[in-house]
Amino acid sequence: MNFDREVDASGLNCPLPILRTKKALAEMQSGQVLKVTATDPGSVRDFAMFAKQTGNELLQQSDESGSFIFFMKRR
After folding, report:
1. 58 is catalytic
2. Which of 46, 53, 66, 70 could pair covalently with 36 via S-S, beta carbons 3.0-4.6 A apart?
3. What are 7's strand-pairing partners?
4. Which string of DSSP letters, residue by residue, matches 5-67?
């Protein structure tokens, strides 16, 4: 998937992955896609909830070798 910006939140526990994501999204334009890599297992639930609460679209999420990768589209 093509993305405009990337956040590496590997090794960080909540709420730091969400805080880094919020900051990155605030600096992006509407329609741009953010890729987030996290290792905290709670991130799957947290990112889905974050996307729903903020109106940003969670396009895809995957689990690869202990990392969770999320693609989120800026509203």
Report:
1. no
2. 70
3. 36
4. EEEEETTPPTTHHHHHHHHHHHTS-TT-EEEEEE--TTHHHHHHHHHHHHT-EEEEEEEETTE
- Taking the C-alpha atoms of residue 7 and residue 16, their distance in angstroms, rounded to an integer, is 11
DSSP state of 72: E
Q: In what order do the strands lie in the sheet with 67-73?
A: 5-9, 33-38, 67-73, 57-64
Task: Please give the model's pTM, rounded to 2 decimal places.
Answer: 0.90
Instruction: Give the pLDDT of the chain (75 residues) as one tens digit per residue.
Output: 899 999 999 999 888 999 999 999 999 999 999 999 999 888 778 888 999 999 999 998 888 788 899 999 999
Peptide bond before 41: cis, by omega within 30 degrees of 0?
Answer: no
Among 67, 65, 57, CA closest to 47: 57
Catalytic residue among 5, 8, 10, 14: 14
